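Q: Structure for this?
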Amino acid sequence: MGRTKKMVKEELANRPDNTAFTQQRLPAWQPMLSAGIVIPGFVIIGLAFIGIGVALFVTSQSIQLLELDYTGVEQTSPCFKCSDPNAKNCMCELTFSTDTLFKGPVFFYYGLSNYFQNYRSYGVSKDDDQLSGNLDNFKSPSDTCAPYEYDRNNKPFVPCGAVANSLFNDTFKLYQIVNGAKKVVPLDGKGISWWTDYNIKYRNPAVTPLKNAFNGTVKPLYWSKPAYELDPSDPANNGFINQDFLVWMRRAALPDFRKLYRRITDGDYAEGLPAGNYSLQIAYNYPVLSFEGRKKVVFSNVSWMGGKNEFLGIAYLVIGSLCVVMSVVMLIVYAKFKFPEEE
Amino acid sequence: MTYFMSCVTSEEERRVRANDRDYNEKFQYASNCIMTSKYNIITFLPVNLFEQFQEVANTYFLFLLILQLIPQISSLSWFTTIVPLALVLSITAVKDATDDYFRHKSDNQVNNRQSQVLIRGLLQNEKWMNVRVGDIIKLENNQFVAADLLLLSSSEPHGLCYIETAELDGETNMKVRQSVSVTSELGDQNNLASFDGEVVCEPPNNKLDRFCGTLYWRDKKYTLTNQNMLLRGCVLRNTEACYGLVIFAGPDTKLMQNSGRTKFKRTSIDRLMNTLVLWIFGFLVCMGVILAVGNAVWEREVGSLFQSYLPWDPPVDNFLFSAFLSFWSYVIILNTVVPISLYVSVEVIRLGHSYFINWDQQMFCSQCNTAAEARTTTLNEELGQVEYIFSDKTGTLTQNIMSFNKCSINGQTYGKYTHTHTLSGRFIRLDFTPFNPLADPNFCFYDDTLLESVKVGDSHTHEFFRLLSLCHTVMSEEKSEGELVYKAQSPDEGALVTAARNFGFVFRSRTPGTITTTEIGRPVTYTLLAILDFNNIRKRMSVIVRNPEGRIRLYCKGADTVLLERLHPCNQELMNITSDHLNEYAADGLRTLALAYRDLSEDEWEAWSESHRCADKATNCREDRLAAAYEEIEQDMMLLGATAIEDKLQEGVPETIAVLSLANIKIWVLTGDKQETAVNIGYSCKMLTDNMTEVFIIRGHTVQSVRQDFRSVSLSAAWGEGGKQLQCPPPPPSNLMDNISGEFALVINGHSLAHALEADMEMEFVSTACACKAVICCRVTPLQKAQVVELIKKHKKAVTLAIGDGANDVSMIKSAHIGVGISGQEGIQAVLASDYSFSQFRFLQRLLLVHGRWSYLRMCRFLCYFFYKNFAFTMVHFWFGFFCGFSAQTVYDQYFITLYNIVYTSLPVLAMGIFDQDVPDQRSLEYPKLYEPGQLNLLFNKREFFICIAQGIYTSVVLFFVPCAVLSDATQSTGVPLADYQTFAVTTATALVIVVSVQIALDTGFWTVFNHVFVWGSLGSYFTIMFALHSQTLFKIFPNQFHFVGSAQSTLLQPVVWLTIALATAICIVPVLAFRFLKVDLKPQLSDTVRYTQLVRQKKRKPVGRKGRLGARSGSRRSGYAFAHQEGFGELITSGKNMRLSSLALATFASRHSSSWIDTLRRKKHTHTHTPPTGAETDIKIMYC
């Protein structure tokens, strides 16, 4: 008796556990691409996409957009004279008119084409420690900044690197021409950069006045003003947290890009740009013709989905329609070659 | 003595002096400490890393890592490669360390075994590892031999001792060893302590059956052979104690010399995977070249002009050099198309599948308490692709248990019901004990009329059982009164003698000249006059006995075909009836024997005895003359009846074979057994059926006859019976065999097989054999088994599986793609050599149709998805190259690149690879056709691979161009443009993770809780980790490392971004969905149908063909003679040679393992010292002469 008991015990010792896991019998959901799910699914997806597409398309159509190229390639262009690389402090003026109210808030962008901010060695050429206000990196910038690390006298560039060095430095002034007189359209440069860039990523060193932090450094090669004097009108908008600087430092993903320059939100223009003639005064400093680049300014307003974007709406419409067409095709196929249920 | 100066470094000969440690130490022989482990704590890291970096993939990633350290090239941070690499290396290292730990443990266990060593005349207990060469150690019964010993003396007479070599060569029968006569006289330890003989012998080698050396002692030379050696790993049996001199220790022992590295098996998926990885390397280089050329053009046309904002680096002063660097940079970026985690994931999945096999309760045998075991974890998916199964017969298909089932006595048949009929319990098992106290309680018989007939005293019945109790070569052992144990050479004979025993004719004991029986309670002693031994040609054996009354009678049992010819003519009527019975039995798959007797007068006996003696003494043609003498007396016999023995199949064998052949798996039986036996088993396990058009038997002895056989087979197979008449030279058989119709089976004999396996005929053999539905090879040697397997591997490119249980199957198990060992029976050699082991043949269907099928399916789905996801991920960089001046700018954040393969996408696909099921396990067994896609390699091949790659590339196109088109002039609702690099990176990465997650959701057919956790968990972890990496906290600690601060928040809050992601997902997934739906609808696979029916819960219908098949009984005439005997036993018995040993050595006599100690004894008589041939070889020789 004892022996049989022991044997039973031993038998249990080797027997694998009888659990759902070890026996591969875990409860499971086994979805199947049956017609009852797929065809209605396609119809629903298709209709949803068409709906979204229509909404996007209509919204996009309502957005106003105005683009003005001011590179000055053509001789007729008012900025032709400035496109000469030898011209210094050249100013040119573009005029344009709107027939209707350009609904506000209006955003004022500058755009560059054939400009490779996404080139790898361009993109890495900066020193994030330095830009977050680390004074050690003022003295000795990271070697990622090469070739804009030190000047000929071995003084460090601050801010160093190719990105900072190539800061876009055209400036614009917008006037409405009212009865022949120029009326300044106030441009708002506050909050045009990312909140995190302004508040976290870029920090000036905690030195007052800011200028002292820059002792022993030189301004980037192409800059006309040092970093601490970028905005003479607003002392808080200087150094690494200058809005224009921040906008430039957030490099673009594609070689044709636009960046926010100003907003038109104040005064008489809070509702938008009224119909009429406008004049844009450009301080043309930034050479792009050497690499066949283009410069432009863009005025645009936005909707809930951002700026004008026709592609998205059309793409949604196309995909939605294809889904509906597909569902019809599948229905026909299903009806013809019915799944052999009897087998 | 001339080469006394032999150097130690390369041992040319070994000199060992007994009891002289100082002398032996000069030679620095290995100690008895064995070390199978590879590492110790200090060497583990360097050695293991060195081994791992020998893998091409690992070296490649190391090379990438070095590239990344060059700043001009480095397009990615070093950690993007080192983190996955470290992960992969450490997982492998942990696995290696665990394996090695267990090896250490077993080493320690073995090294610390105790043995008794004679030191300075005293026996001392020493650990095995401290035993030295030249020590004399004492072994006791049932102890393992510690090292290779020279047997000096033993407690048994003549210095004999018995050993079991199961661990060494798998043979479970005992072998005898004898010491040199001078040392056997030494006896006890006092004499041995002063023994100072010196042994000069061969250096260590791995030949188990050979040893040559010389013992020098007291100025005399004694030759030493293998007969004097006890090898490590053997167990001492039936010997009280013995003393041995250690010759080889530890790693020098033959056991350790033999434990070479086993051949590493790779699956076809493995090989395909390696090819594909090479292709991907090629693809990677092509991409690199395209992008480098692009870079050269760009730098020349654009970059050179853009230098005002981005001057070329001083070393990069021209566009060609820049392109060169760009090539390497792109090799780094695009390296993720060669997935670093592929191999380690595949290993993990296989490990999981192996555990499922180990855990399967339905492959657990409760009788022998063994669960299935996946001994190799690298072959699982190949189990789903098997096309050929090579099976051993005895012990695999059959239980090697014979049961006396039916008999025909004087025209009356008994035993209507076979064992299977009686399982229902309607027929009561006969209880013999009241009638016969000596009965064997395990004996089953269900027909009481036979017992009645014995009780009534029917003379025919009595004579029938008397014959069974006398005419055999069984040895008996009676430990206590009435407790008989029979040691039969073959289980058939055991069954017959046991049957006689239960019916009152008890064989009690024998001496060379007598047989003592108890006949219905009355002891009778017969004088044994002669044994006319069995051999394969005679197919019968006889004994001539004189009963106490002095009457001489010859009893004969043998194959019906030979025996019925030798009957007295007056038996005609009885013969007809018996013959009918024999046919009946044969049709039931039983092994039959006919029994007859002949009365001899004293004169006849004297005359024959004289001629027999003459023949026996003849020097030339002794065998022939003996046969002639036997033939002379075995005439005019009176028929007694016939017996039918059931060779019990293992449980569920016919059903398993039926299911497996429905799954298109061809089953070949390779057996060392005789043709008749093998064919018989073929019928009883339904491999051969009477519905078959023809069963071809090839048994030619010469090349020509075998070739002729093949020709006629292919002719008659192609044109039916008429083919044989055609005299024209037959066209190449391969063409013929393609278009045959009908079911054929091929039976081929070992000697014909030897010719068929020769180079010029193997094609004919393969094409013929493969056209047949069943193939049985009988009388094959272990080597031939392996050759057949190799042949099919070579010519058919099919996955082969070999299954067997004995040492003779080892070669076949090792050479097949997959080797399966039947465990829980005698011998572990087959199991040790196997990749999978379980205890019942029927588990094979579950192993293949369920586990194998699932493994294959899972692995294929896993691989498809794995390549897809990596291409979708990586190729985005390629498209981006055209927009970023081919500057090797990555699209994604470097942390995303690091974590994508190892965190964000690894677990869902792993869960699918481990848990996925398309149909439940019962369905795979019900519909064996579901197994076919694996055999045809449909689920993952080069075509499927290209489809995956194409889908991956399509996805990458969508993932790049959709965000590109949308974001290029999209803005946030605050007017800030979305076209900045970081927003783009986050959008693309998120879209990618979502698309591949949706794709895995589509691919997963079986959503267990793990799949849910992993899929949702991966998505969750992606967002969590991204938000964490883009958080202010981390940025404040490492401002230089986390450039993406704030990107996640500002990007993912934009509706446009989500609309973009939704659009990209729809464009990627909708076509896949539509395609899959249409495919299921238009071209449904069987698994789809089964799944569908399962889903709609229709009445499940059993597949056709499974029933009708199994119940079929046939009535064709087959010779059922089966007598798994070897000759030579009769001689031994009459000579009395084995009488002394009978109580000892026969204890573990197994039928299959040839009684090679008997051979040894016989050869000793003839003073041969050659290697004893195996039983099969012996028999073949006999058949040739």
